[in-house]
Amino acid sequence: MNNYFVSAIGTDSGKTLVSAIICQALGADYWKPVQCGFPRDLETVQGLVQDPRCNFYKEQYLLKTPASPHAAAKIDDVQLSVANFRLPATKNDLVIEGAGGLLVPLNDEENIVDLIGHFEAAVVLVSDLYLGSINHTLMSVEVLKSRNLKVKGIIFNGPENKESQTIILKRSGFTNLFYIPQESQINADVVARYANELKAKWEI
C-alpha cells in the first residue's frame, strides 16, 4: 500500500481532477482529510472515477465555510491538529487530496504540508501553467525539499508552456509525470483516457 498526497501551487490548481485521474489509473482509494465549503471534492471524484476497485472515504473534517482550514475551523468551533488525523483503514493505494497549497494553515502553528510526513505519503505536485506559476511552483519545491519529503513528481495542467515546464523541471529535479491540457469539459471518459496515459509513465 502506498499513500500519495496531491498538493498544488495554489487553490483551484487542479488537485481534484488529478486525484481522480490517479485513482482511476491505479485503482486507488480517495480521501480528502479536510473539506472547507461546498461542493465536496469527494462527490466530484466519485462522479469521475469508474474503477470498481476504488473506495471513497468521508472527510475527517467537513467544514462549512470556503476558507483556509484554520479560519473555517474557527467558525465551526473545531480544533484542527496534525496529531489527530488518522488515515482510513485500507489495503489499497490511497490518494490523499490536500486543501489549497502546502503552506495553507491548519491552525496557528501547523500547515497542510505537515500532514504529508504524518501520513508518510509521497507528494504529487500539481502546477497549473499561468503567468507567475514558475515562481509559485519553485517556492513549493523549496518547501518540499527543505522538509526532505518524498516527491513522486509534478503534473502540469493548463495552456502548455514548454519554457515554464522546462525550467521548473530543471530547477526542481522532479519527475514530469504528466501534462493535462485545457478541456472544454471534464467527465468520466476524459478521466479514464488520461488515466490510461498516466499508467504508462507512473512507474518509470
Automatic annotation (TrEMBL):
The keyword Signal does not apply. Its EC number is 6.3.3.3. ATP binds at D12, S13, G14, K15, T16, L17, D41, E97, G98, A99, G100, Q182. Its main location: cytoplasm. The keyword Metal-binding applies. InterPro entries: DTB_synth_BioD, P-loop_NTPase. Pathway: Cofactor biosynthesis; biotin biosynthesis; biotin from 7,8-diaminononanoate: step 1/2. GO terms for molecular function: dethiobiotin synthase activity. Mg(2+) binds at T16, D41, E97. The active site is at K32. It catalyses: (7R,8S)-7,8-diammoniononanoate + CO2 + ATP = (4R,5S)-dethiobiotin + ADP + phosphate + 3 H(+). Signal peptide: none annotated. Its cofactor is Mg(2+). It is an enzyme of class 6 (ligase). Pfam families: AAA_26. It comes from the Bacteria. It is found in: Cytoplasm. Keywords: ATP-binding, Biotin biosynthesis, Cytoplasm, Ligase, Magnesium, Metal-binding, Nucleotide-binding. Belongs to the dethiobiotin synthetase family. Catalyzes a mechanistically unusual reaction, the ATP-dependent insertion of CO2 between the N7 and N8 nitrogen atoms of 7,8-diaminopelargonic acid (DAPA, also called 7,8-diammoniononanoate) to form a ureido ring. Homodimer. This is ATP-dependent dethiobiotin synthetase BioD. It comes from Agaribacillus aureus. The lineage of its organism: Bacteria, Pseudomonadati, Bacteroidota, Cytophagia, Cytophagales.
